[in-house]
Write a structure and sequence with these properties.
The longest helix is centred in the C-terminal third of the chain and has 21 residues. This protein is globular. By secondary structure, it is an alpha/beta fold. The strands form three sheets. Strands 1, 2, 3, 4, 5, 15, 16, 17 and 18 form a nine-stranded mixed sheet that branches. A six-stranded parallel sheet has the order 9-10-11-12-13-14. A hairpin with a 2-residue loop joins strand 17 and strand 18. Zinc ion binds next to loops.
C-alpha cells in the first residue's frame, strides 16, 4: 500500500526549496519519499493505495518535541494546590510531586492518549517524553508506548528516576527503565535533577545508559535551587558533577533547561556534544529565569516541558523571548525548532524518516518563497494550518480529523481519569 500526495507544494525543510510536485510516501519505519512528475494511473496503482489531494497546500516535514511530560496532561483546570507555592521547590512539592504520586496506570494511559492526540493536531509526530509516577512505576513506560503507538506517533521515552521517594521507588525506576530498554524500545535513562539524585543513583544511571547505548534525559539547573543543593550536598556544581560521573561522555544525553550555569559549565556542555532542551514558556510560567542558549551550545532543541503539545507555539515564544536574551534570528529559531530531527538522526532513532509530513492549509496573504519562508514560519504558520499529518507513511489525521483513535472517546476517558486524579489529590494531605 502506498500513499500519494497529488499536486503538492513541497517545501524541503532543510534547503527551503519549494517545488510543485506529486509525491509517493513509503509506509513503515524510516520510509522514504519520492517525487513524481505525474500521478500513477489507476492501472498502475495497487487496490489499497490512497491519494490525498494537496492542491493549494504546503507539504513539509512534520514536527517534534524535545522535552515533554505527558504525565501533566490531566493537570489542566485542576483545583488549587493545598498551599500556594512561593518558589520553584514549592511548585514541585505542592503541584507536580503531589500530582505524580497520585497517578495510576489507567490515568497514565489517558494522559498519553490525549497528549499524543494533541501532538498530532499540532503536526508533531515525534515526542521525547520524561515521565514520573512514583507509585505506578512498573509498566508505566510500556503503557505510554502502547498509547503513543495506538495514536501512531514516534517516541523516545524515559522514567524520571530520583531519590525523592526513597530507595524502593528509586530501584523500581531503574528496573522499569532497564526492562523497557531491554525489550527493544528506544528511550533514555531518565533522572529528575541533580538535587534529587544521590551519588549511588547517578552512578547506576550512567552504567544503565552505557548498557543500553543511550543517554541520560534530565533536568539541569532549571532553578538556582538545583545548583545550591548540589553544591551543599556534593561540593560541586551540577555540570561538574555530571561530568565527573561520566554523564557528559554519553552524547545521546538531553539536559533540559540549563538556565543557571557558569561559563565553565557551558563550555563543558559545548565540548561534550550532549543536547540541551529549551522550554521558555515553562520557565516563564515558573518564574525561574531565562538564558542565552547561543552561549551554551548549537545542540539546542525546543520542548514544551508538558505545558502543551504545540511546537509552532513554542518556537514563537522562544523567538520572542530570544530577542532580549540572545538577539535570536529567524534562521536560528527555525534551526532549533527542527533540531529534534538532527537529534533523532544522531541518536540513530527509528521512526523519524522522510515519510513524516504535515500538510498545511496555509492561507498566506503574500507569496511563500524559498527566500521568505522563515518570515512565514515566524509570523504566519501556526497550528490551525495543520490539516493532515502523516507519520511513518500513514495518515494519522486528515483535514483536522484524527483517524487512528476516536477523539471523543479519548477525551471522555481523559475527563473521567482527570476527576479520579483530582479526587485522589484532594484526599491526600501533604
Ligand atoms: Zn521538564
Amino acid at each position: 500500500m502506498a500513499l500519494y500526495l497529488k499536486d503538492a507544494t513541497f517545501l524541503d525543510w532543510q534547503t527551503f526549496e519549494i517545488r510543485k510536485t506529486c509525491l509517493a510516501v513509503e509506509m513503515g519505519v524510516n520510509g522514504g519519499l519520492s517525487f513524481l512528475e505525474r500521478m500513477p494511473t489507476h492501472e498502475q496503482r495497487a487496490p489499497h493505495d490512497r491519494i490525498l489531494d494537496c492542491a493549494g497546500k504546503l507539504v513539509t516535514k512534520s514536527f517534534g518535541c524535545g522535552h515533554h511530560h505527558i504525565y501533566s496532561t490531566l493537570a489542566r483546570g485542576m483545583p488549587a494546590p493545598q498551599k500556594t507555592p512561593v518558589n520553584f521547590a514549592e511548585i514541585l512539592k505542592y503541584i507536580w510531586w503531589h500530582l505524580d504520586k497520585c497517578l495510576d496506570l489507567e490515568m497514565i494511559e489517558a494522559s498519553a492518549l490525549a497528549s499524543a492526540m494533541y501532538c498530532v493536531k499540532n503536526g508533531v509526530t515525534l515526542i521525547i517524553d520524561h515521565h514520573a509516577s512514583p507509585f505506578a512505576v512498573n509498566e508505566s513506560l510500556s503503557t505510554i508506548a502502547r498509547a503513543f503507538d495506538r495514536v501512531g506517533i514516534s517516541h523516545l521515552l524515559c522514567y524520571e528516576i530520583s531519590d525523592r521517594d526513597g530507595e524502593g521507588v528509586r530501584e523500581e525506576g531503574l528496573a522499569e527503565t532497564d526492562a523497557f530498554l531491554a525489550s527493544g524500545h528506544q528511550g533514555h535513562v531518565g533522572l529528575h535533577a541533580s538535587f534529587t539524585v544521590g551519588d549511588e543513583l547517578l552512578r547506576k544511571a550512567v552504567a544503565l545508559a552505557h548498557k543500553h547505548a543511550t543517554g541520560l534525559h534530565m533536568h539541569v539547573a532549571e532553578d538556582p535551587v538545583d545548583q545550591e543543593e548540589t553544591q551543599k550536598r556534593y561540593g560541586q556544581r551540577v555540570i561538574e558533577r555530571l561530568q565527573q560521573a561520566g554523564a557528559l561522555a554519553l552524547p545521546k544525553s538531553i539536559l533540559s533547561h540549563c538556565i543557571h550555569l557558569s561559563e565553565r559549565e557551558k563550555k563543558l556542555i559545548r565540548e561534550s556534544g550532549v543536547w540541551v532542551a529549551q522550554n521558555v514558556e515553562s520557565n516563564q510560567n515558573n518564574n525561574v529565569g531565562l538564558t542565552s542558549y547561543a552561549s551554551i551550545t548549537g545542540n539546542t532543541m525546543l520542548g514544551t516541558d508538558g505545558m502543551h503539545s504545540d511546537m509552532l507555539r513554542s518556537a514563537k515564544a522562544a523567538f520572542l523571548v530570544g530577542q532580549s536574551t540572545e538577539g535570536i534570528g529567524f534562521d536560528e529559531i527555525y534551526r532549533r525548532f527542527h533540531n529534534v530531527h538532527q537529534y533523532a538522526r544522531a541518536f540513530g532513532m527509528r521512526g523519524d524518516g522522510d515519510n513524516n509530513l504535515v500538510i498545511l492549509n496555509y492561507d498566506a496573504p503574500t507569496d511563500v518563497t524559498a527566500d521568505n519562508f522563515l518570515g512565514h514560519f515566524v509570523y504566519g504558520i501556526d497550528s490551525r494550518h495543520v490539516a493532515t499529518v502523516i507519520s511513518q507513511g500513514t495518515a494519522l489525521m486528515e483535514d483536522g480529523k484524527i483517524l487512528t483513535v476516536d477523539e471523543n472517546e479519548v477525551l471522555g476517558f481523559a475527563r473521567e481519569m482527570g476527576k479520579k486524579l483530582w479526587g485522589k489529590m484532594q484526599r491526600t494531605k501533604l
